[in-house]
Amino acid sequence: xxxxxxxxxxxxxxxxxxxxxxxxxxxxxxxxxxxxxxxxxxxxxxxxxxxxxxxxxxxxxxxxxxxxxxxxxxxxxxxxxxxxxxxxxxxxxxxxxxxxxxxxxxxxxxxxxxxxxxxxxxxxx
Length: 125
Description:
By secondary structure, the chain is mainly α. The chain has eight helices and two strands. The chain is 62% helix and 3% strand.
């Protein structure tokens, strides 16, 4: 997954495409700057809220392997990259991600990433 701006230099677009195909997240530097500025402008209560008891319990609903998948989803990795990292098929990862979303009552990967972060699974505040 990534964002490259249409006016990016062709060499930058090529590097971004190769990185994205390899499962790496890609953000154009100007997009990264805006993202950092937006996040740092948020009140600290929104940036580093501790997990609620409910969020800690949500992760207890997962199977032994699903928290590993959830952490990699939270890091922005693609299903293909997660499959490669964990030695699974891409179809298996897609199935696990769908089960994680269903078990946690979530509708997208971004919400899953937030839950993983707030539950302390990602090692980042």
